[in-house]
Every structure is written in C-alpha cells, then in structure tokens.
Automatic annotation (TrEMBL):
<keyword id="KW-0350">Heme biosynthesis</keyword>
<dbReference type="InterPro" id="IPR001731">
    <property type="entry name" value="ALAD"/>
</dbReference>
<protein>
    <recommendedName>
        <fullName>Delta-aminolevulinic acid dehydratase</fullName>
        <ecNumber>4.2.1.24</ecNumber>
    </recommendedName>
</protein>
<feature type="active site" description="Schiff-base intermediate with substrate">
    <location>
        <position position="200"/>
    </location>
</feature>
<dbReference type="GO" id="GO:0006783">
    <property type="term" value="P:heme biosynthetic process"/>
</dbReference>
<keyword id="KW-0456">Lyase</keyword>
<dbReference type="InterPro" id="IPR013785">
    <property type="entry name" value="Aldolase_TIM"/>
</dbReference>
<dbReference type="InterPro" id="IPR030656">
    <property type="entry name" value="ALAD_AS"/>
</dbReference>
<feature type="active site" description="Schiff-base intermediate with substrate">
    <location>
        <position position="254"/>
    </location>
</feature>
<dbReference type="GO" id="GO:0005829">
    <property type="term" value="C:cytosol"/>
</dbReference>
<dbReference type="GO" id="GO:0004655">
    <property type="term" value="F:porphobilinogen synthase activity"/>
</dbReference>
<comment type="similarity">
    <text>Belongs to the ALAD family.</text>
</comment>
<keyword id="KW-0627">Porphyrin biosynthesis</keyword>
<comment type="subunit">
    <text>Homooctamer.</text>
</comment>
<dbReference type="Pfam" id="PF00490">
    <property type="entry name" value="ALAD"/>
</dbReference>
<comment type="pathway">
    <text>Porphyrin-containing compound metabolism; protoporphyrin-IX biosynthesis; coproporphyrinogen-III from 5-aminolevulinate: step 1/4.</text>
</comment>
<dbReference type="GO" id="GO:0008270">
    <property type="term" value="F:zinc ion binding"/>
</dbReference>
C-alpha cells in the first residue's frame, strides 16, 4: 500500500466530523457480540454483592431467570453460568459436579423452562465442587489428568441433559475436548456446542472471580501445571489446533485485554469462531478506577470491548454485557 505524501494525504480530513468518522470506521461493536457471565446462588429472591466486582451480584435462580429475560430483550445472545457452591457440597472427588440437580443444572433448566430465547453456556471444570479449589482431581498433591477428564465428561453430559447449548470447558486438562465430544455424540447430544477455553493462561486477573464463586479460600497452591505460562504464544496456537481437531466448535482466549496479540493470531491463523474472556480482574480494574473518578467508566468499557473486535474476536465474555447492551440500545 503506497500513500501519497502530505498534503495530498491529510488523515485529518476523514476525522473532521462524526459522519465522516462513521463512514470510515473499520470495526463495530453490537449486542450480538456479548456473552454475559453470571453468578448463581442458592435460595429464593436472594442477591448478594461481590465486593471485588462492583456492580456484580450473585443471584438466586428466580432472579437469574428475570435477569436472563432482560438480557435476551437487550439482544444479548448468550449467558454463561457460574455457581457459588456451598462448602458442604465440595469434596475431593467432586461428585456434586455431575449431580443432575446441582445449582448450575437447576439454573439451566429454569432458564430453559421459562422459554427465554438466550443460549445458555455452562462452565466445565471441577473447581466449584473441589475441596481443594482445583479444576482437576488431586491425588497426592498432583492434579491427575485422565481421571479428571473422566469426571469432566460426566459433568458435561449432565449439563447437556439439563439443556445447555454451549459447554465451556475451562479446566485445561489434556484430551478433554475429544472425550466430551465422543460422549456427547454417543448420548445423542449431537447439537450441543463446545466453546473450548483453549488458550487459558495462569493469570492473576482471576482473583475477583474466585471470590465470586467462593473458591479463593479453598485453592491450595496455584494452577500453573495446567493453565498456560503468560510468556507463551506458539503454545496457544498448538492448543487451538489440538482442541479444534478434537471437536471444539469455537475457541476462547482468556484473559482478554493483556492477550489481544493471542486473539489476533488465533483469528488470522485459524479463521474459526474466536472469543475472548474479559475476566473479573479486568472488570475490577476498570470499574474500580471509574468508581474513584479516575477513568470515564462508560468510555473505557466501550473502548476495551471495541479493542477485542478490532483484534478479530467474534465475541466477548464480559461482566459489562448488560450495561453495554443498554448503552448500545439507547
Ligand atoms: C475456573 C474458571 C475461572 C474463571 C472462569 N472459570 C478461574 C480460574 O481458572 O481460576 C475466571 C473468570 C474470571 O476471572 O472472570 N475453571
């Protein structure tokens, strides 16, 4: 691309008015780009605030159904559920994860039964149910891969049976996508989609989320033997290729803002449905600064989400989803 020199080319000509800027805008953010991660708790008509995520609440199922209805009416295509599990239900063997009547599965069914036109996504990982807070089963201090995969498959099948449209394996065990896909096919869940958390990094940006689901206290050690080293990029491409070959329909990069280079590379190299998770710590940074008046909350929210679209993402999991959808609809 060659460009005539100044003054034949003056870039400011096309920035002069809002109309001219709109004409040459390369990227658009719409409500259809949003997936809303929501926290579910037990009880009826109960809501409680998550202190490290200002504006985010855990909702009991009845209130979650109302919130899902509102999200659908705002044009948000998908909601992703994360359960706050009672400590009494956590164990080393994690059976509660595949209980057909666990909190997450009851929430999925309630949204389905209410006839709300929204895709329901669930999280496939053992951490909410694990007494030690890990995403896989721990034996003698080691997170054991293949046994974890067996547990994750049972969990995935229970979620599919409850009516989940999208399964989101966030556990980072090896071989789980293939095992889940095979089990889903053989149980007749041929239309259930998998959005693989393919490139999920061992990140300090997940802190507020672990508070929200009550896993911070439980977690022993860190997740570095299964989540990725933040220093790696080629490895992310290998993981994406692997998960696609095992039957993932969509892939995800997580966290989001510090990993836009990975999002961009994934979209360019694979050309598959690519999503990013703007995680709890990213939300907390923007929201916390906005609350103190240090940043313009509305503008940084929109700018941060537009950046994902510019990087090539097809959609973003973001706690801002309802707020940004209201703004885009206004
Ligand atoms: C756990 C899971 C995590 C998140 C989504 N699923 C945390 C973790 O891996 O420790 C983080 C989401 C966020 O920070 O918003 N399987």
């Amino acid at each position: 691309m060659t460009q005539a020199p100044f003054p034949a080319t003056r870039f400011r000509r096309l920035r002069r008015t809002p109309q001219l800027r709109a004409m040459v805008r390369e990227t658009a953010l719409g409500t259809g780009d949003l997936i809303w991660p929501a926290f579910v708790r037990d009880g009826h008509a109960e809501r409680d605030a998550v202190p490290s995520m200002p504006g985010v609440e855990r909702l009991s199922i009845d209130l979650l159904v109302d919130a899902a209805r509102e999200a659908a009416s705002l044009g948000i295509p998908a909601i992703c559920l994360f359960p706050y599990t009672d400590t009494a239900l956590k164990s080393e063997t994690c059976e509660e994860a595949w209980n057909p009547d666990n909190l997450s599965n009851r929430a999925v069914r309630a949204i389905r039964d209410a006839g709300i036109d929204i895709a329901v996504m669930t999280d496939v990982a053992l951490d909410p149910y694990n007494a030690n807070g890990h995403d896989g089963i721990v034996r003698d201090g080691v997170i054991v891969n293949d046994e974890s995969v067996e547990a994750l498959v049972k969990m995935a099948l229970a979620q599919a049976a409850a009516g989940a449209d999208i399964l989101g394996p966030s556990d980072m065990m090896d071989g789980r996508i293939g095992a889940m896909r095979t089990a889903l096919e053989s149980e007749g869940h041929t239309d259930v989609t998998i959005m693989s958390y393919a490139a999920k990094y061992a990140s300090a940006f997940y802190g507020p989320f672990r508070d929200a689901v009550g896993a911070s206290g439980a977690l022993k050690g860190d997740k570095k033997t299964y989540q990725m080293d933040p220093a790696n990029s080629d490895e992310a491409m290998r993981l994406i290729a692997r998960d696609l070959s095992e039957g993932a329909d969509m892939v995800m990069v997580k966290p989001g803002m510090p990993y836009l280079d990975i999002c961009s590379r994934v979209k360019r190299e694979f050309g598959v449905p690519t999503f990013a998770y703007q995680v709890s710590g990213e939300y907390a940074m923007l929201k916390g600064a906005a609350e103190r008046g240090w940043l313009d909350g509305e503008r940084v929210m929109l700018e941060s989400l537009m950046a994902f679209k510019r990087a090539g993402c097809d959609g973003i999991l973001t706690y801002f989803a309802p707020d940004v959808a209201r703004l885009l609809n206004a």
